[in-house]
Amino acid sequence: MPEQQGTDASPERLAFALMEKGALTSDWLPAFKRAPRHLFVPDVIWPGTAGGNRQKSQIIRSEDSRAWWDAVYTDAPITTQWDDGAHTGPDKGKIPSSSNSMPTMVFSMLDALSVHEGHRVLEIGTGTGWNAALLSHRVGPENVVTVEVDEATASDARKRLQEAGFVPLAVVGDGAAGFALEAPYDRVIATCSIGQVPHAWIEQTKPGGVIVAPWGPTYGGEAVVRLTVKSDGAASGKFIGSSAFMRLRDLRTERKHVREYLKGKPWPADGVKSTTTLSPDDVGDWHVMFAIGAQVADAFPWVETYKEGSYTLWLRDTTVTSWATVDFETDRTEFEVVQSGPRKLWDEVKRRTSGGTARAAPASTGSGSR
Q1: Helix, strand or coil for residue 269?
Q2: How many CB atoms lie within 10 A of CB 159?
Q3: How far is it, in rounded angstroms, from Cα 106 to Cα 245?
Q4: What is the sign, positive or negative, of the torsion defined by CA atoms of 279, 285, 287, 290?
Q5: How confident is the model over 129-178, as pLDDT tens digits?
Q6: C-alpha distances in angstroms, 168 versus 123, 211, 293, 332?
Q7: Which residues are marked as active site?
Q8: Residues whose CB falls within 8 Å of the CB of residue 252, separated by 6 or more in sequence, listed in order
Q9: In whole angstroms, what is the distance from residue 217 CA to residue 219 CA?
Q10: pTM of the model as a whole
Q11: What is the pLDDT of residues 1-26, one digit of tens each?
């Protein structure tokens, strides 16, 4: 494998780091070597941070090849597209819409997929093509179908795959619909997050087959779920680790502005005031949001920040009937609450916590019917 001059980053060093973490197993090492990450990363990127959701400044390979190479062989995600391709400038866009995922996450999910030679695999979200290449090496490209909704992204990925010597069936389409023409599959893996498991995926998976996908509730937080499909058309399984993926485009939701909830009136409108000893800071961690979201349906948070670390936590429901605010100030032990509508959203969050820590979310998920 080539190594960029003047940098310590290399495929070998990344492989060693991933194996030390237990993410890259010996059975996936040949695929890692045959499909090195740099072959599947575009020339213009926004590197991410390990364990974080912030992108660094843009790197263009032709202008700084060393920085580009370092980013590729760092165990961190890389954003490759913003705003479904509408954003073309050098700065960051509003919403990242395509990426080359964090290698630890890539190989952890592939390991959970439990593929064997000859398995038929459906991948939802081609992205840059790296995951499809790894699967193609493992089970044979003739056994891999990869679906991507964005035509430009799909075209670029297909080119990279072909140049690297892989020719899986690469389809442009809605990933939520799977790809019935090549069904049934032994394995289905999604590289984009979902809020519900599309029933098409279950229908297109053989009984005993496995589905691995990032699942996140409306409220926030996310975890990878591993489901086994049963002969009766249901699928069940457990969450196997936290994650942070971009939403499947068909399952995105559009948030209404605060003014829609206040119905044109200034805050607090018709809200009822109270106080709470539960700090908004105690319910803001990723895993806590996930646990709350798995139990508080159809609601989501938003934070309005002020000076010196103070902020207002807004809670809103998706049907635009109820809202709540909780004001946070440092060194306070009691916080002002305002709630409006038939749902008392802050009360719902409080009931799902104990001593400021969210109770564990259910360990399994259901059949995924619409």
Answers
A1: coil
A2: 12
A3: 11
A4: positive
A5: 999 999 999 999 999 999 999 899 999 999 999 999 999 999 999 999 99
A6: 10, 19, 37, 58
A7: 101
A8: none
A9: 5
A10: 0.82
A11: 455 655 688 999 999 999 999 999 99
